[in-house]
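Human: Note token order:
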Amino acid sequence: MASQTKRPRRKIASRTNYEEDIADYVIETDESCSSESVIDVNDFDVKSETGSDCDESERADSHDLTTSSATLWESVNDLDADSVTLNSFTGTSGPVFNPVEDTEPVQYFDKFFAPLTESGQSLWKLIVIETNKYYQYYLSQNHTIKANSKVKLWKDIDVKTMRAFIGILLNMSLVRKHSFHSYWDTTHFPQATQVFRKTFKLETFKLILHFFHVSDRNKEPKRRSPAHDQIYKFRPMFDHLNATWSQQYKPPCTISIDESIVGFKGHHNLVKYIRIKKHHQWGPKEYNLCDAKTCYCFRTLYHTSGMPTSVHGQPYKVCETLMSGLFERNHHLVVDNYYTSVPLCEEMLKKGLYVTGIIQAKCKGLPQEMKHKLKQKEDIIACRKVGMLAINWMDRKQAQLLTTHASAKQVEVVRRRFGDTRTISQVVQEYNAGMGCIDMRDQMADAYAAEFRTVKCLKKVLFHLIDRTLTNAYICYKKNSNRTDKPMTHHQFIIDVVESLIGDYKEPHSQIGRPSFGTPASRITDRHFLESIPDKKRK
């Protein structure tokens, strides 16, 4: 056997200084988007959270990668002398539907399901048509249905039946139980809820839930085709509600954009993961444009793999899409560090829109002062560029903010938690006021959400949109200018809506026993009363 010669190991040459500089630059660039700073609204302290609301694939495209000149920034030495000239807000705000005081709560909810035009179709009618149509599609795709299958019990539904079905679903958010069967269970008397059994049979409810659809499956584009749409299955409801949300409430001056997750852990191409979200971390990711005070949601946008982008990055395109039609009104947009960038502030200012948000210190276009380490609490460094102000502020941790709406002046605020006063920057104050409603918005929508376990991502998104619509209806009710009495609570508002949706609907039940023939005898149908016998004599 021939002896095998061992190949000598090649020596790795040491890196040159040029290669070390390149490696250090690459590492520094990758770390520039690895942390997120969030300002606490209650105590005005800055807390840093590792991770971000975007994954690694989105982060590479998050901001403009073109080099911007940092020599145009000038330091602001006198903070109190700094000022900014703002144009007044020219839009109108508040609910469009302001009925009389005794209007039923369900009328606020029905406004979002109404037709978009006079000759259009209501969302109720659309759901009924597509649900009945999907049953026929299901039969065409499943030729071998068993003889005892529950599918054969299906009967076409109408608008009244669909309203009662949605009312039952919303009622499940008020009466929490572990499964659908428990709502119809009457074995244990203390846990029995008769409204579910009196409205629907369990088999009928499951059939409507199974065939619930809002799109025509026969016209769905095939995958990998140019016309393929990842949200085609809920696109009609998505477009309708986006339009009615914007029609029924006009946005005020200060608005905000943030992400949220529709809870779903199944397999679907829309499922994303956001680690720092508290309520849900897995599920379809949506971008919401909301009122900074009332938490009213004007528009929403779902994250898909084929989302359009721009030369300034995907976050810039998200803001531009959600703000379409609201430019040149001098709105004030408040965002977090996923969206904030120098190109966003520059381009939005040209379109008549002010921006305020936390920004990462190593983003392109910022002055070098934003990278300086501050040691003492309440230390601040401010730099100005044409129309923009960048501050480096120290609280519990360091944070950088960029704005086109505020000055570098210091203001005194009262902390609600401790009752004392603190001096903070005006930029921080406006950021706290604009982003304070983000957590409350998710709490309002999720507190009474009709959530249940399902393997269909479509069902999760559709009923989430209905929950969001119900929350918007309650906000319109509270902001009604013609109402003078004390508003009802969110819980009571949902109860009234559920009662109106169900109404007097009861699914017809088949009677047990032999069917009757002809008209019954009068002795069975007439009413019988006791009569006194005259003279108290009996025969």
Notes: The radius of gyration is 31 Å. Residues 1-53, 55-61, 64-70 have pLDDT under 50 and may be disordered.
